[in-house]
Amino acid sequence: MRKRILSGMRPTGSLHLGHLVGALKNWVDLQHEYQCFFMIADWHALMSEYKDSKKISEYSFDNLLDWLAAGLNPDQSILFKQSDVVEHAELNLILSIITPLGWLSRCPTYKEQINELHEKEISTHGFLGYPVLQAADIILYKADCVPVGEDQLPHLELCREIIRRFHYLFKKEIFPEPEALLTIIPKLAGLDGRKMSKSYDNFIALSDTPDVIREKIKSMFTDPQRIKRTDPGRPEVCNVYKYYQVFAPKMKDDVYKECKGADIGCVQDKERFAEFLIELLKPHQQRRRDLEKNKDYLEEVLRKGAEKAREVAFETFSEVKKAIGI
Ligand code: TRP
């Protein structure tokens, strides 16, 4: 039996280059080795976006386009939407009953978001329970491994603690304790050098048009000490050079020399990178456009995915009810 994986993304915006190199490429490779469940976490999205809830289903489709265009294969993996499988909400209720409040209020990601995301009004019962729902997502499929970035490790630790408490309280071992499959993320900073993120508006979306990509790359920071065209550059501190390292490994040595030797200016260098990236994204964007025309197909992917996910979820939830005795 192949080991099982579950992971998810919150449909709160367009997917960007950071998602592609940080998660999607990795998910695509994992499909061959594991039985994979990949979930559009729309309930999780709602927890922070409930004031603009209509956008969530738009982004669910939009993100699914990128998933498929990047190579996730619905015949190989189970691609589904969280809200289509009702057991997520049901198991969330049960786990929330047994999870002590202190575990949640002490969670570092919770403290950080409460301090930073002032405009969202996330001081709610639901948002405090974010990791509980995430635990339900994972254990409903008895996932062995969860591919995530480092920022999600506290949630995975909480998930394991909740599992132990469930087993202790109801005297039945149902769930494997899942391990993180830490993605080796090539550090891809945003256009301004901070972490690439929707909230900083410093990303290049996988669906950006060539003109938008040119504009965005033009605005990128390079070496702040390189003022005149004739100044030698320092690729080691240049954000554009980091992009070359991640996306154009074959070009990077030449670029390094040309920058150091002031053979090429930053403007010209950025123009060259923009054209390279536009070409690189072309096949992905073409696949996106082809898929976009066929909304029925997308709906069918999610319908079939939900059907398969539901089978597993129903089994697990029956075991849960039996263990509790309800
Ligand atoms: N919290 C995850 C994130 O923000 C998304 C997510 C929801 C998830 N449920 C999950 C990830 C279950 C892994 C497993 O990235």
Structural overview:
The chain is mainly α. The chain has helices at 17-30, 42-49, 54-70, 87-98, 101-105, 108-116, 125-128, 130-140, 153-170, 210-218, 239-247, 252-260, 266-292, 295-324, and strands at 4-9, 35-40, 78-81, 145-148, 179-182. Strand 1, helix 1 (17-30) and strand 2 form a beta-alpha-beta unit. The protein binds tryptophan (TRP). The site of tryptophan has 13 residues, from strand 1, helix 8 and strand 4.
What attributes characterize this protein structure?
326 residues; Rossmann fold; Tyrosyl-Transfer RNA Synthetase; three-stranded parallel beta sheet
Q: Any idea what the shape is?
A: elongated
Poorly predicted parts = none
| Strands, total number | 5
As a percent range, the share of strand residues is 5-15%
Q: What structural category arises from helix and sheet content? A: mainly alpha
Helix percentage:
55-70%
CATH architecture of the largest domain: 3-Layer(aba) Sandwich
Produce a short descriptive summary.
With 326 residues, the chain is mainly α.
Question: Which SSEs are present, and which pair or pack?
Answer:
Blueprint: E1 4-9, H1 17-30, E2 35-40, H2 42-49, H3 54-70, E3 78-81, H4 87-98, H5 101-105, H6 108-116, H7 125-128, H8 130-140, E4 145-148, H9 153-170, E5 179-182, H10 210-218, H11 239-247, H12 252-260, H13 266-292, H14 295-324
Parallel strand pairs: 1-2, 2-3, 4-5
Bound molecules: tryptophan (TRP).
The site of tryptophan has 13 residues, from strand 1, helix 8 and strand 4.
